[in-house]
Amino acid sequence: MKTHFILLKNFTFFLFLIVIISCKGQVYDEDIVDLKSFSLNSNISKFYANSLNRENIKFTSNKQYVQKDTINEYDINWKGDRNKVFGVHYRVVSHSENDTVAKYNSLRFSLVESMVDEHNDLMIINAVTKSSSNQINQFISELNTEFNEKPKVSKNDAGFFRYRILTWKNKNKLIKLVTEVKLDFSNIIIDEESKKAISSIEEDDLDNSTLFICNPKYEKKLLNKVGTGNWSKFK
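RESULT FIELD:
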């Protein structure tokens, strides 16, 4: 009887440990974040706890630095209320393309940014990867399997950028993959010297693909709304 009690006690203890570990949540720039299992109910302030230290802006720290920026309704279209919060952006200020801070299946990402609403509820994250066409195609196949459907495909542009957007959606999350980024000056009046200068500056970023993971209930609020940074590609 005593042996059974001890075994039951030990089992309960280990079960308690498993629950504690599973509830701890992932922390940015500590271990590689698994975006596939990442909860859209996560506390983002805690998630970025390691990276909100300004000391991390020193490249010798080998840590990313994340800054909180408030986006007001006025910032969206210059017509909204300057005092009403649209969202709070957790923006990666310093990082290296050689960083691997997150993964989603076979794909690896060098940065992850987030946006919460005025109540600190997570609305959306974006993650950037520099991956080959073969790696992107493999990832697309994996998402097709996960969502049990092929994506909705569209093409879009922003200035002289052209890119392809693939969208998957279920009741739990909305995913957009922005890839095949190209420069296109065909609809812009610009001289050849400026074209060469822009191409030289932007060349390294053309290999980047951006993954968005959005809480579906915020889709209408965010779609085509934020025109800065990677958020401008959420279309």
